[in-house]
Structures are given as C-alpha cells and as structure tokens.
TrEMBL record:
One Pfam family this sequence matches: Sensor
Protein name: Sensor domain-containing protein
Organism listed in the record: Nocardiopsis endophytica
InterPro entries: Put_sensor_dom
Keyword line: Membrane, Transmembrane, Transmembrane helix
Keyword Transmembrane helix: yes
Amino acid sequence: MQKLIRRLGADTGYVLIGFPTAVIAFAVTVAGLAAGAGTAVIVAGLFVLTGALLAARMAASVERNMLAHVIGRPLGAPRYCRAPAGSSWFRTALTPLTCGQSWMDAGHALIRLPVATATFVVVVACWGVALAGVAYPLYGWVLYSTVGSDGGLPELIGLGDSLTVSVLFHTAVGLLFAVNLPFVARGAAGLNAALAQAFLSPYAPAYEEPEPGRPAAPAPASHTPTSNTPAEAVAHGAPLHAAR
C-alpha cells in the first residue's frame, strides 16, 4: 500500500510539475526558433537559434531529472557536440546548430505541450472528483440544507433526491475515482515519460565526444601468414618436428 501511495505521488507530481515546465519550454523555444529563423539571413539570427537550442537543452535536462523518479532509473544525458579545440569563437558559438541531440531537445519542447496539457487536465479532474466525493459526507448536508437540491444526477437515474441518497451517491462516485486514480496517474505519467524517452535518450554515439584520457581502441592484431610448407615453417622459427 505504501508503495502504491509513493507511486501515485511520484506520478502525480511529475504530471503536475511537468505542465508549467512544458509551457515555459514551449514558449521560449517557439519564440527563439521563430525569431532566429526570421533573422538568419543577417547572421544574428543564427545566434538566436543557438540560444533557443540551449534553452531547449536546459529544459531537457530538467525533464531528465524528473523522469528518473517515474521510470525508476536515470535516463542518462548525452554528451552534446562541441567544437574542436582551437576553433574560432564563431564556430564554437554556432556548434549547437550542428548537434542532432539539441534539435531533438527542441522537438520535445514543441511536442510535449499538448500531451502535458491533456494529461494535466485529466489528472487534476480525477483528483478533484475523488477528493470531492470522498469528503462529501463532511459538507454535503450543509449544501443540501442551505443551497437545496433539485435531485441532480441521482434523481435523473431514479435513485431519489433525499440527503441520504445524495451523500451515498457522491461518496460512491468519489471512491470509484479514488480507486482508479493510481492507474490514471500512472497512464498519464507513462505517456509523458514515453515521449521524453523517445526524444531525450542518448541516441547517436556519433555526436559524442571522446572523454579526456580515454584510452585509444587497441589496434587490430597483425596477421601472421600461415606457413604452407615445412621449409617455410622452419624459416619462421617452428621446430622441425612441428613443421612436419
């Protein structure tokens, strides 16, 4: 039970926090890409595009950190493409434009917003109905006695319009949503996580830089020609009896 509650909290927190971060990442990325593409002909737009990609990279880093609590393991961060040592400042500044992972980060920032919005609405609505229904016995009688009741849904389906029926009906609905809430939250978090894994996982070793001090790959062993005759075997140092 405790594991289920922790999982529910992690999934809900991931979806709720993911919505505002998705909004910010989308707004910054779209604005940067649009402004950069519109002014790329005057070169200054290239630097704006670079800034947009760097902002998307920061948002991707935040997403990777949050994702670890949902999938139960670190996603892993790619080593982004860097300019070779000794490159000019111009090439160094524009290197993110040639990095495939940076563009994948930007694509995630653009595509995630509709998914984050839909899952946020679903999770918040389920939480709202569950809490309101389970707590209805605490405040339902106040609403019934002050505001009054026209029967509502219980009366429409033929259950009556009494206070007891209203309390039992709304409590049952709240319990139903509460029971299904872990599955709804898990599905919503899983959808966002799958999208993040598709775009943000290290996918292209070609973009990775060699780590400083990493030993070079061993050279392939030289092939020693096979001796075909006893005379050649003896010439290569093999014993005469082995050559025979």
